[in-house]
Amino acid sequence: MEKGKDKSYNKDMQIRESSIFGYHIYDLQSALNIKNQAKYQRYNDMIKDYQNLKEEYQEKYGRENYDFAGIAKDKNIIITQLESLQEFVLHKEINGKPITPNLNKFLSENIEISNMHMQSYSTTADSEHSAITSIYPMENGMSFSRYYTNTYDDIFKLYNEAGYDTSYMHGNDAYFWNRGNVYSRLGVNNIALKDKFQETEYINGFLSDEIVYNQAIEKLTNLGEPFLSFIVAASSHTPYELEGLQDRSKISIDVGKYKGTYFGNYLEAVNYADYAFGIFMEGLKKAGLYDDTMIILFGDHNGLNMYNEEMIEFLKATTPNINDIEIRLNYTRVIAGLKIPGIKNIKIEKTTSKLDIKPTLTYLSGIEDGFSLGTNIFTSKEFVALNNGRIIGNSYYYDENWYEIKTGKKIDLEFLKTSEPEIKEVLDRYYEEMQTELNISNSVSINNLLEKRQ
After folding, report:
1. Of 167, 131, 159, 41, which Cα lies nearest the Cα of 372?
2. For 52-94, how does the pLDDT look when each residue is reduced to its tens digit (9 = 90+)?
3. Which of 12, 172, 188, 319 is deepest in the core (most CB within 10 A)?
4. CA distances (Å), 109 to each of 74, 181, 369, in order?
5. 98-108: per-residue pLDDT in tens?
6. Does the model's pTM come out above 0.85?
7. Does residue 264 share a domain with residue 135?
8. Does residue 20 lie within any of the structural domains?
9. In terms of Cα–Cα distance, which of 152, 176, 192 is closest to 358?
10. Could you give phi then psi for residue 362, rounded to 5 degrees?
11. Residue 309 and residue 413 in one domain
12. 360, 381, 402 — which closes off a domain?
């Protein structure tokens, strides 16, 4: 769900709603407010705390649950980002038909990452930024608009240096979320936006997923090997009406009483996105690009409001006692899965996030990761944070107060001091580590600190 109405990003709206003078005042205030979010002004001050944090993570969370270091060295890599796909749709049926049969199959055969969370409440661009850089996004697409000239140890830089041919594909215009400038700046070898595809079917103004996937296969076969390619699908974009879809028989579900509702439209759009994903997987197999390729997929962000009534009714059909904290986490949890050649049938249930994608891929590829705030998902780190300061752990959730996820009950920290001091210590540590991560990330973005390395 692209939230282009944010005034700090949408300059046209600022001008329409105020005078030119007022627009510049707002822009100056916005810049000053953002500058105040940066704790570190110098790289040398920041890097000390970063190194201490990484050492602490290695000590506390460094245990690996699987020995996969370098297992996918020199393998091709496909990263697929799916629009608005929340995790709750997986392995679910409606009126006797699975909503996501192809994704279910892929995940059951490979590695299902069942507890991945988005890093911000905002945009597709923020998701891409998180995955590519392992740095928290600045809110509302600013990482792609205001800070796109920054230096990061981004995934394209690392894999270019390791001899991979890199590509990025998206069936939209270069100006949308500034992607043309962003990916050119990142040094991607092959950038295919809308003008590089044969335009035969549009859905909601974007090239349809099926068109993008089918033509992506041809583009992949022309890349040098090994390659790393990031492909963004967009057909399941709000308002989910699939306007422009030429053959609606590709929707395989009957949403029944939800027909014509926002929730019903969402389920149909997800089902079409799943159909197109299945076409993509079959196409990769026919092209000989499936078996020996590492594939990671994830949803970019939520698709529905946190308290969408029909969604909650749907959730309660399978989880009757779902509590408010679980509903909040349902909002940030997205689909995610990973295919590693030769590895089958694993489910990762611990909490993970988009920041973990880059360090996981580099770990599997045997490539030095560089600067990352995420961790390899095969280690034991047990919490993630959002860029608004919320914390999601395996058992606990922080949103101004701490809550136990399983019961939804607020935690009394004072009582915890004497009753279960070891849990109080864990929650305090999570909070301190979250603050350190966000302070480092904001400073790196706002002051471009990685460019100032000696």
Report:
1. 131
2. 999 999 999 999 889 999 999 999 999 999 999 999 999 999 9
3. 188
4. 22, 37, 28
5. 999 999 999 99
6. yes
7. yes
8. no
9. 152
10. -65, -35
11. no
12. 381
